[in-house]
Amino acid sequence: MGPRGSALICGYTSYHGLLESCLADLKKKEVLTLFCVLQSIVHWELRSFVHFINLFLHLLTEKINLFFSVVLTLAGMG
Fold first, then answer.
1. Highest taxon of the source (predicted)?
2. pTM exceeding the 0.85 threshold for the entire prediction
3. 40-52 pLDDT, tens per residue?
4. The domain containing residue 62 runs over which residues?
């Protein structure tokens, strides 16, 4: 995705354009493009957290199944 791809994903308002032109003037550049890095980081962290929760629930389910398997075996029902 190119430099304008983040505007498609994160949105682009007149304030973004004004900030870009002011920063370009400050840096004495013809054009300056903003990138939406923060949203990408937040999105990645959220995906990592969801993956962690899924892994935790999977392991918890395995432990619960093992526990009931042992209980049923000890009770003579397994």
1. Eukaryota
2. no
3. 666 667 777 788 8
4. 37-78
